[in-house]
Design goal:
The chain is built from 15 helices and two strands. The protein is mostly helical. A two-stranded antiparallel ribbon has the order 1-2. A hairpin with a 2-residue loop joins strand 1 and strand 2. Helix 1 runs antiparallel to helix 4.
């Protein structure tokens, strides 16, 4: 806790100097210019000589006057800078809150079967897990060998684009690097009315599965990415992690889980290029054991060490114990 406090204090100090470095620089330059006669004499052979002020006709009164003038200039400069920074911060916050509000409205309009708003991520994650099992079984049946990341990618792309008259074409292009016979087998199976009926009955889905969610999730993830990117590329001196953390706090566990899968897949290429997942810990609130490591995948495999929130709790417990 002490180390964390010191680290935060150091970060705040650095942030302070970054904000006011121009002010400090102006003050330092002014002090050097005012005291130049005295400083210049100190480099002579005779050493420092206070009488050197007389050579420059600089009386004590004029010295004080110039010093006060300098402080006034610095004060005015600092005030103007502060107003500019305050205006920039206000504009940034207004724009950010507008983007977040738009995102909330977008989520609020979601509907999937009997589920509305943010709650639709619960059945969606359930559907993805069903697809994951189907894809694994089909890969095993065809004696193909793929690692967990590839299986997750195939399953999620099917979940995202879905199967259907138009969707299958898009899905086939998205999965072009995989064997055509595998994709064809999966599409036939997922379009089979018996498979759909069995899945709906067993998993209690109140909607027809495997039709894709790109109309919902495509817009959702683009908005979320735009918000994080907007914060990340700000030039004003702010705690970017704290702003993104506030955004993350609004995401449910199921939202964070699907976000992680989305980023792992081919669709999440832009997220991976920017390293947003690592920099801002966007999915750190996923509970321990949320994913079945043997049947699904181990999320910590894709994340830095001690990334998750439960890691902090475990460390704290170890210290107390």
């Amino acid at each position: 806790a002490i180390k964390t406090t010191k680290f935060k204090n150091m970060k705040n100090l650095i942030r302070h100097f970054r904000s006011y470095w121009k002010d400090y620089s102006l003050l330092l330059i002014g002090l050097i210019l005012i005291n130049y006669p005295l400083l210049e004499s100190c480099f002579r052979k005779n050493g420092c000589n206070l009488k050197s002020f007389d050579e420059y006709k600089l009386t004590f009164e004029s010295y004080v006057t110039i010093s006060v003038s300098l402080l006034t200039v610095v004060f005015v400069f600092t005030t103007l800078n502060h107003q500019i920074r305050a205006s920039e911060l206000q504009n940034f916050q207004n724009k950010l809150f507008e983007m977040i509000e738009f995102h909330r409205e977008n989520v609020g309009e979601f509907q999937l079967g009997r589920f509305k708003g943010r709650s639709i991520f619960i059945p969606m994650l359930r559907e993805y897990r069903i697809l994951l099992r189907i894809v694994k079984k089909e890969i095993e049946r065809l004696h193909l060998i793929y690692n967990n990341e590839e299986v997750v990618n195939i399953s999620y792309l099917i979940f995202f684009y879905g199967v259907g008259k138009t969707s299958t074409k898009i899905l086939t292009n998205a999965l072009a690097r995989y064997p055509k016979f595998l994709i064809k087998k999966l599409v036939i199976k997922l379009q089979n009315p018996k498979t759909i009926k069995k899945v709906r009955k067993k998993s209690k889905l109140s909607y027809i599965p495997f039709q894709g969610h790109q109309s919902r999730l495509g817009h959702y993830y683009r908005n979320l990415y735009a918000i994080v990117k907007f914060v990340h590329y700000q030039r004003i001196n702010i705690d970017k992690y704290e702003y993104v953390r506030n955004i993350r706090s609004q995401l449910s566990n199921h939202e964070q889980a699907l976000l992680l899968i989305n980023i792992i897949s081919d669709i999440g290429l832009t997220w991976k290029k920017e390293f947003f997942l690592e920099k801002y810990r966007l999915v750190r609130n996923i509970p321990k054991g949320f994913f079945n490591e043997s049947k699904e995948f181990d999320p910590t495999h894709y994340l830095p060490a001690k990334y998750m929130e439960y890691n902090d709790i475990e460390i704290l417990r170890a210290k107390i114990g």
